[in-house]
């Protein structure tokens, strides 16, 4: 997977739509991100940067390749949230044979679902 960042002039909403449509037609792309403030398009996938530039220039857009490099996946997505252990239940919860017991910290009470 490659991460390609292109500098593109974006002046209006019509420009955004044209850029997204043009880039989306190219096969091998996993994701497209458009940053209007920075005037950049970030493309992730197995695709040639020159091919993308060529297609955008055919569509009449001024394009420059800002960077091309390997895509690094975020480790934050892979981390699992650890659940807090539930506090001991009240005597009313212990008599229930089935259902889920939920502890709300705000009310210091159990809820049986």
Automatic annotation (TrEMBL):
Gene Ontology MF: a single term:
metal ion binding
Q: Where is the signal peptide?
A: none
Q: Where is the HMA domain?
A: 1-68
Q: Keyword annotations for this protein?
A: Lipoprotein, Metal-binding, Methylation, Prenylation
The record's InterPro entries line, in alphabetical order, gives: HIPP, HMA_dom, HMA_dom_sf
The source's superkingdom equals Eukaryota
Q: Do the record's keywords include Ion transport?
A: no
Family the entry assigns: Belongs to the HIPP family.
Q: What is this protein called?
A: Heavy metal-associated isoprenylated plant protein 39-like
Taxonomic classification: Eukaryota, Viridiplantae, Streptophyta, Embryophyta, Tracheophyta
């Amino acid at each position: 997977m490659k991460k390609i960042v292109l500098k593109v002039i974006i002046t209006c909403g019509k420009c955004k739509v044209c850029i997204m449509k043009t880039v989306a037609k190219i096969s091998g792309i996993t994701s497209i991100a458009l940053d209007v403030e920075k005037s950049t398009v970030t493309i992730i996938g197995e695709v040639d940067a020159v091919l993308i530039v060529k297609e955008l220039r055919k569509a009449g857009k001024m394009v420059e390749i800002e960077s091309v490099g390997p895509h690094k996946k975020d480790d934050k997505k892979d981390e699992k949230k650890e659940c807090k252990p539930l506090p001991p239940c009240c005597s009313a919860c212990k008599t229930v044979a089935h259902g889920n017991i939920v502890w709300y910290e705000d009310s210091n009470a159990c809820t049986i679902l």
